[in-house]
Every structure is written in C-alpha cells, then in structure tokens.
Design goal:
Blueprint lengths: L1 H13 L4 H14 L1 H14 L2 H12 L4 H16 L7 H7 L4 H14 L17 H10 L10 E2 L2 E2 L9 H4 L2 H9 L24 H11 L4
Antiparallel strand pairs: 1-2
Helix pairs in contact: 1-2, 2-3, 2-4, 3-4, 4-6, 5-6, 5-7, 8-11, 10-11
Length: 219
C-alpha cells in the first residue's frame, strides 16, 4: 500500500549517503511521528553535516510541542553563549520566529554581536551557505535578476562586471558587502552609482548566505 511504500522510501533515505536526502527524510518522520522525529533531529544537530543541522533546526521550528520548544531554547542558549557554530545562527533565528520570548532573545544577541560593524546582522550570513542553492538564486531568482546585468559562468548581461573570478577579487566579507551595499565600491567603468538593488531588500538572509557561498567558488 501507499503508506508502506512511503515508509520504505523514507527508511531508505534515512541511511542514504546523500545528506540532503537524509535531511528530507527526517522532516517527513517528524511530521508523522513527532517523538521519533524529534530524536532524529536532535541527533542530526549533534552529529550531522551543516546542511543536515540547518534542515533539522528548520524542522524543529516548524514543529509544535514541549520537546520542540525545549530544543529551540537549548539552541538559542548555545547561540547566545557562543557555543553554536556560526553557520547555524540564521537558522536558529528563523526557527524561533513564532516563539516571541526566544525570538526576542535571539534578536537582542544578534544586534549586540554586530553593533560595531556597518554590515550589522548581515554578518551572520558569512558562513553556512549552500553552493547549489546559491547558484539557483543567481541564475533563476526573478527578484534578484542577477543575470540581467552580470555575466556568470558564460551566461548573462554586460551592464555590470562579470562575476568570473570574483572570489579572487573579494574575500567573503567583501562579497557580502557588495550584495547588501552595492554602492560601497562600484567597479571601475560602471560608476559612479550602481544600478544593482541592495540584495538584502529582495532576498532572505538565507538566500544571501547561499549566494555568498556560491560566489566564493567563482575563482
């Protein structure tokens, strides 16, 4: 029957060599069996890949109940005490968006951490991005419309600098700055003002994080 086949597919995905499949399978389990799923998500946060940890945090954020609330409280405590990997900060902040007390704690921490840098809380997007998702944003996100102006991997326009080798010209923070404040440093021959919109106004923090990760591969 259909449920049995789904169960078999999920069980197979849970032991897959592909982190993305394992992460998706855990999300399905937690929807159908919250107690079992919560144990799996906790284990993924403890010992999974960065992608699995991020997916597990998102799944916990979408789950109601005492166990999920407790897990999120632990994650916020780890983040505010400095023991949470920086690559997971955006995920924790997103996951607690509907839990007001935890949301306030996370927001206060993020603001305090980044108060002395003009990039502010965008600094939290420097680590943890996914290259493939970033490539998808650059190539297909209609709001960002990167290829309208930029040439990327042989495709795109010429109204703005080619992104070929951009990772050799900017470090990770420079890449982020060029996304969220494109007028900070306009490339020679394309000034004096960039026509590029600030990506922070059209992309989510997670999407910005993914684009930073992808641009970092363009050497």
């Amino acid at each position: 029957d259909r449920d049995a086949k789904l169960g078999q597919a999920v069980d197979a995905a849970l032991i897959s060599d592909e982190p993305r499949l394992r992460a998706q399978a855990r999300t399905i389990v937690v929807r159908n069996d919250p107690a079992r799923g919560q144990e799996m998500l906790d284990a993924a946060i403890s010992g999974g890949t960065t992608l699995e940890k991020q997916a597990a945090i998102a799944a916990i954020g979408a789950t109601e109940g005492v166990a999920a609330d407790a897990a999120l409280a632990q994650l916020v405590a780890a983040m505010t005490s400095g023991t949470l990997p920086p690559s997971l900060a955006i995920d924790v902040i997103d996951a607690v968006a509907t839990r007001q007390q935890l949301k306030d704690q996370a927001a206060a921490w993020a603001t305090n951490l980044t108060t002395n840098d003009k990039l502010g809380t965008w600094l939290l997007t420097l680590e943890g991005g996914d290259v493939e998702r970033g490539r998808q944003v650059v190539n297909f996100n209609s709001a960002a419309a990167c290829l309208r102006c930029h040439m990327v991997e042989g495709t795109g326009g010429h109204a703005a600098p080619s992104l070929a080798g951009v990772a050799n010209r900017y470090d990770r923070k420079g890449l982020l700055n060029s996304l969220v404040d494109p007028n900070a440093q306009v490339a020679q021959g394309f000034g004096p003002i960039s026509s590029m919109p600030a990506m922070g106004t059209v992309l989510t923090p997670r999407e910005v994080r993914d684009v930073v990760e992808y641009l970092g591969t363009l050497k």
